[in-house]
Structures are given as structure tokens and as C-alpha cells.
Design a protein that fits this description.
With about 70 residues, the chain is α+β, with helices and mostly antiparallel strands. The chain is built from two helices and four strands. It has a two-stranded antiparallel ribbon. Strands 2-3 form a two-stranded antiparallel sheet. This is DNA-binding protein.
Amino acid sequence: MDDDRKLLYKAEEAAPLLGVTVWFLKNGARTGTLPHCRLPGEKRLIRFSRQNLEQIAADAAVPAQTQDAA
């Protein structure tokens, strides 16, 4: 089972895959158009699974893009 797809994405990695934006402010707060990224705290604490990304894309009617370039 050689699967190169990432299982977890940081918010800043997830945003471009969904075609949305996310910014991290100096105080650690998040802003932008990526859902679930507007909470204060360490940016490394929020992770998105592939399933999370698919659900966010479905909810927002945005076609999810994968990193797989076959």
C-alpha cells in the first residue's frame, strides 16, 4: 500500500487545495475564507484530514483538488 497522499494538512496547506485563503495574524488568530480557521491559538494545532477537506469542499460547493498528479 504505497499511498503518497497526505493524511493531515495544516490550515495553510489546506487552503490552497480548496482554492480559499487563510492568514495567520501575529497573535495567532486566523482569518480568511477557510472554515474552522477563525479560532485563536497555535496554527500547528489545527489539522485537516482528507475527509475534512472533502466535507468542507462539499459544504462550500468547491471542487476539492488533490496533490496527486498522475
